[in-house]
Q: What sequence folds into this?
């Protein structure tokens, strides 16, 4: 059996307002598709640490203790994209204002949460990761003399809002709709 490897060319990235149905139509999917200018994604978090609680007494020469599981950490994802417009900045700072064809984005008191989908399909297997109800927490722009302006945006969601699905050796059609099984 050949090793399963997903490449960037197998991937699609969607970011939509929380609770949106991106399966509604091709137009809905295309409106929320960001794959065309994303250069890098990363995922981290979800750790499940424990703490040791010391107790009175000894067993086998060691002080008695128990372990307690701590709450699961939040999941984080970051997306690096070529700066094309103000959309990623709005996710962190809130909706901008437009006047005379110029959009200004600055710190706002509220911003909408979003759902993020990473979907990989190599024609045989599929992998889909969803971060529901994420909050954009940071943004950083960078460029070098030989490159282009990029923006990295960080997002966080609760562990209960993270989901990863994998299907191997499918025979026909998409195993996972874009959002139906995650809604």
A:
């Amino acid at each position: 059996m050949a090793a399963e490897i997903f490449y960037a060319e197998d991937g699609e990235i969607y970011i939509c307002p929380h609770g949106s149905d991106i399966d509604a139509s091709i137009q809905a999917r295309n409106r929320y598709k960001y794959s065309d200018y994303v250069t890098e994604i990363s995922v981290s978090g979800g750790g499940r640490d424990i703490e040791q609680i010391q107790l009175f007494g000894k067993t086998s020469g060691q002080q008695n203790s128990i372990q307690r599981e701590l709450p699961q950490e939040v999941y984080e994802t970051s997306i690096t994209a070529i700066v094309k417009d103000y959309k990623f900045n709005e996710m962190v700072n809130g909706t901008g204002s437009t006047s005379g064809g110029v959009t200004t984005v600055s710190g706002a008191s509220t911003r909408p949460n979003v759902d993020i989908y990473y979907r990989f399909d190599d024609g045989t297997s599929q992998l889909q990761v969803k971060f529901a109800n994420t909050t954009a927490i940071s943004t950083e722009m960078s460029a070098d003399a030989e490159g282009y302006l990029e923006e990295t945006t960080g997002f966080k969601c609760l562990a209960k809002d993270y989901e990863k699905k994998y299907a191997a050796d499918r025979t026909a059609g998409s195993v996972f709709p874009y959002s139906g099984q995650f809604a």
